[in-house]
Design a protein that fits this description.
about 325 residues, alpha+beta, Amidase signature (AS) enzymes, 10-stranded mixed sheet, two-stranded antiparallel sheet, 11 helices, about 30% helix, about 20% strand, globular
Length: about 325
């Protein structure tokens, strides 16, 4: 019974849609609970690049149910001027903005988005959530889509996941990618960012750096953020003069902007400080992803309890109102 009540509360919050993050909600998802088994909810970014086959695989392999279609920023923009970040009250990071917000609010347990130049990793970071992208997810399908970033760099999107907790992320990755059952017993080779690198500068040197460095290590670690707190990491605004360019740098988006453009795989592990994270990056090979995922477990924290209780509390969205007890 408690599972049904919890699921219904998630749907009630989705239908309230307090942050404009939901495009469509499927209340009939509750019907799945008739079997007496626990189920978890998926939210999907409202983009054609997310194939139905990915949702079907998650549903067949585990107890996931499609719950919402999620709002995204217009034109894949790196900030969503139509939605606020529920934590900071500033414009929400894009473009998988609604997908990240719906995970934070507890509407969904797993969010699925698309990432061209940080569109999954950065929104996850901006809400202290876990994020993961890899070009290996539905690889044949996503390669049908190509685009150009707002600063003129061609790319194909990667698909990715957003979760509140690390075990949920780990399970989703293992359900979709056929990772090796074990890793090499040797210590992984880990590289940290070169201090001389302009982490928040132009994308091209960062892409070149990843392509040069990743073959030499199991994975790479960068610490980035706070995302979009002291500036806006958005090239539409950022190219309009020196002041907006400085604002773009102050947004503290580093390698998260270029992982996909380097055809790499990445995992963001939130730190306790707002909108900051460890960014783990590796070549898109299954053994290296496995090693990175194993190491990430040592860094992962549980979601902040105050954030969890505030945003997932049904009474905050449906109060008794005037005259209530």
């Amino acid at each position: 019974m408690n599972q049904v009540i919890d699921a219904a509360n998630k749907t009630f919050i989705a239908m309230k849609n307090p942050y404009g993050s939901v495009t469509r909600v499927f209340p009939q998802a509750l019907e799945q609970f008739r079997d007496g088994n626990p189920h978890r909810y998926i939210g999907v970014k409202d983009k054609v690049q997310v194939p139905r086959t990915l949702i079907e695989k998650l549903q067949q392999k585990s107890n996931y149910i499609l719950h919402t279609i999620d709002q995204a920023s217009i034109g894949g923009r790196a900030i969503d001027v139509t939605m606020v970040n529920p934590l900071s009250g500033k414009p929400m990071t894009g473009s998988s903005s609604g997908t990240a917000v719906n995970v934070l609010l507890g509407i969904n347990d797993l969010g699925i988005g698309t990432d061209g130049g940080g569109s999954v990793l950065a929104p996850a970071m901006s809400l202290n959530l876990f994020g993961f992208i890899s070009p290996l997810i539905e690889q044949d399908y996503v390669q049908l889509f190509s685009s150009t970033s707002t600063d003129g760099i061609p790319f194909s999107v990667s698909l990715g996941f957003i979760t509140r907790e690390f075990p949920e992320m780990k399970e989703a990755i293992e359900l979709i990618l056929e990772l090796p059952s074990s890793t090499c017993s040797a210590e992984p080779t880990v590289t940290r960012v070169d201090s001389s690198l302009d982490l928040y500068g132009p994308r091209e040197p960062l892409i070149a750096y990843l392509k040069e460095t990743l073959p030499l290590c199991d994975f790479f670690i960068s610490e980035e953020g706070p995302v979009d707190l002291f500036g806006f990491g958005d090239s539409v605004l950022g190219h309009l003069g020196e002041a907006t360019g400085e604002s773009q740098r102050a947004a503290k988006k580093g390698f998260v902007r270029v992982v996909n453009m380097a055809n790499a795989t990445a995992l963001v592990i939130p730190k306790r400080d707002f909108a900051t994270a460890f960014v783990l990056i590796c070549e898109s090979t299954l053994p290296k992803i496995k090693a990175m995922l194993t190491y990430a477990e040592t860094l992962a924290l549980e979601q902040d309890p105050l954030v969890r209780s505030y945003f997932q509390k049904i009474q905050n969205y449906y109060s008794d109102g005037y005259g209530g007890k």
